[in-house]
Design goal:
single chain, four-stranded antiparallel β-sheet, two-stranded antiparallel ribbon, 3 helices, 6 strands
Amino acid sequence: MSHERLLKVLSAPHISEKATDIADHGQYVFKVQPDANKAEIKKAVELFFDVTVTKVNTLVRKGKVKRNARGFSKKSNIKLAYVSLEAGQEIDFSDTENKEEL
């Protein structure tokens, strides 16, 4: 896997009520590229956040069909990765050191 590919694997952290609850247990949720596999996701998280990943689970959330004035449309599918870290490690998404105080 090339370094360029690993830079494109992770799209964004997925922030939801469930994701916040499981973060207390050392598991984090990321939106990933649809063609990413578990090995690529593991290496990308370890590269970006300098943590040790123990397990990766993936799922594809199917897009809903919505009705609008012109008929029906379909939202796009989203691939999510549930990443488990070693005990005692965590990822902090709020980078408060670089923010200036108002």
